Q: What sequence folds into this?
């Protein structure tokens, strides 16, 4: 039996070239099965180019950002510490994240394992500031679900957060998925409710504070509603409307 050739070593300091063909193939698979999370990471690697580099450089310019970069906390490890997660007081973001983990069955480590399908810079053994920034963006994804109110276990919630993430990070891959999902939602529902919700996600991402600059150890201890208010994260009204319309139509997957 033929053995799979090892992936070439990549230098995180050199931006990856965009591979539109790879991204389009992965998007088709993702739209055919919205639960195929591996395709998301294939699209990210194919299209996000220098987004981690740009966001890392931006992090160094914001108050407190240099300290975060200097510490290089691996959030996947911190968020996998259940005793720490269990320590958060009711009403905090940490408590809401704990409820998220318990209700969905998701985990920070599970997200890491899915991301490794594409190799690249996702493993913590890759000691480079840009690689660390890429892992940071991956590891805060589910925390952003909790902060924004977009559900992680439904396709619409993921698409809205994808649009929010595009606004926050500038990653082309996020925008690519959002547009593809929006177009499919029109074919699936015959309505524009989901498109409006996805567009709202983008607008909310543009208006909110830059979430990469947050110290997540401290943010998790903050009362959830206070954190949302401070960061400018508002109620996703169009998302709620679209959710209700999908439920009325008996549509569970886009």
A:
């Amino acid at each position: 039996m033929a053995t799979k050739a090892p992936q070439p070593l990549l230098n995180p300091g050199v931006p990856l070239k965009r591979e539109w063909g790879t991204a389009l193939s992965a998007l088709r698979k993702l739209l055919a099965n919205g639960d195929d999370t591996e395709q998301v990471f294939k699209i990210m690697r194919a299209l996000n180019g220098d987004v981690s580099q740009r966001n890392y450089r931006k992090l160094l310019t914001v108050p407190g950002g240099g300290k975060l970069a200097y510490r290089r906390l691996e959030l996947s490890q911190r968020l996998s510490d259940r005793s720490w997660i269990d320590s958060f007081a009711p009403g905090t973001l940490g408590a809401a994240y704990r409820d998220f983990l318990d209700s969905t069955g998701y985990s920070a480590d599970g997200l890491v394992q899915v991301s490794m399908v594409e190799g690249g810079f996702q493993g913590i053994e890759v000691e480079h500031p840009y690689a660390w920034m890429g892992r940071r963006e991956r590891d805060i994804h589910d925390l952003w679900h909790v902060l924004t109110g977009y559900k992680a276990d439904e396709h619409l919630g993921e698409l809205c957060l994808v649009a929010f993430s595009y606004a926050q990070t500038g990653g082309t891959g996020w925008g690519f998925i959002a547009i593809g999902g929006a177009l499919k939602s029109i074919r699936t529902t015959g309505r524009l409710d989901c498109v409006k919700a996805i567009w709202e996600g983008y607008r909310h991402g543009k208006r909110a504070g830059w979430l990469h600059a947050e110290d997540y150890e401290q943010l998790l201890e903050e009362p959830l509603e206070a954190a949302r208010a401070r960061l400018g994260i508002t109620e996703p009204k169009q998302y709620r409307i679209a959710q209700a319309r999908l439920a009325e139509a008996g549509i569970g997957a886009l």
User: Anything to note?
Assistant: The radius of gyration is 18 Å. The chain has one domain: 36-249.
